[in-house]
Amino acid sequence: MLDRVAQFYADRLTVPVLRYLAERGFPETFVRQRRIGYAPISSSRDLLVREIRAMTKSNGIQLLQQAIEAGLVVRDKAGAVRDFFASETSGYILFPNMVHGRVVDLQGRTYPTPSRRSGYLNRPVPIHHLYNAGDAGQRSLILCEGIPDTLSVLVAGLKDTGACGLYGTGGWQPAWLPLFRRAGRVYVALDRDATDRAIALARTFGTRGRVLIPPQDLGPKGDLNDWLRVGAKGDPAAFRSILERALAMSPTPWALQI
After folding, report:
1. CB 230, CB 209: distance < 8 Å
2. Which pick of 102, 187, 194, 204 has the fewest CB atoms within 10 Å?
3. Where residue 239 falls among pLDDT bands split at 50, 70, 90?
4. Which band of pLDDT confidence, cut at 50, 70 and 90, is reported for residue 60?
5. How many Cβ atoms from other residues are within 10 Å of residue 30's Cβ?
């Protein structure tokens, strides 16, 4: 169901959304490869529900209940159903989380962006996966605060260094630590205003841990995507060079504490 729904929303990418993502440093070929989609603003809030009902009629499988169990469709107290990623005031850019090519989760980010800081929307079910968890098995990797930050590292194409993403600053789960057992170096890269948390998380990895801090000129909330967009002017090759230098100089969490 997650796979089907991810494709449903990927087919609804619009030119303004692709332009916005390109401005964030993600070219269209990369966006299509990562199966990023868009849930448009909808007054009816049932675009996905209607699609699922059409699929049910064609193949005889009751898919609506599966979508409800997956948190992709919600039912109100009156029994009416609507799309979870639907709003009358804002759409959502949807980032699929894939494991071995299969979608295991979807996270939404509001677009158009509201006046306040960008809001994220997770399905109303427990989170069991890191974003891009397959890279946790690499010898060197960057553990990022969110999905756009992780995508920023991936689009840079660092040699022999992967990237995984938390669902926010407090999204780490100790049960994930064994995923990193082969990693010889783990660079924790949270936003500038979360340096204390980055230090604490880097210490979790013992002598393997390092802290990667975005530069001060990106502001107090500067993150990896800002670094790509502003520091590297959206150029993946330039960002790759910047990251390579920054990784080489990343301090240990104990050095930062001192």
Report:
1. no
2. 102
3. very high
4. very low
5. 16
- Rounded Cα gap, residues 15 and 17, in angstroms: 5
The answer to whether the peptide bond before residue 148 is cis (omega within 30 degrees of 0) is: no
DSSP calls for the chain: -HHHHHHHHHTT--HHHHHHHHHTT--HHHHHHTT-EEE---SS--HHHHHHHHHHHHH----HHHHHHTTSEEE-TTS-EEESS--SS-EEEEEEEEETTEEEEEEEEEESPPSSSPPEEE-SS-----BTGGGGGSSEEEEESSHHHHHHHHHHT-TT-EEEE-SSTT---GGGGGGGTT-SEEEEE--GGGHHHHHHHHHHTGGGEEE----GGG-TT--HHHIIIIISTT-HHHHHHHHHHHHHTPPPHHHHH-
> What does the block give as tokens for 100?
């071995």
What sign does the dihedral 176-177-183-185 (CA atoms) show? positive
- Count of CA atoms in the C-beta half-sphere (13 A) of 13: 21
Closest CA to 125 of 105, 109, 108: 105
The CATH H-level (homologous superfamily) assignment of domain 2-122 is: DNA primase, catalytic core, N-terminal domain (3.90.980.10)
Compute the average pLDDT of residues 77-106.
92
**Domain 133-257 coded CATH 3.20.20.70:** no
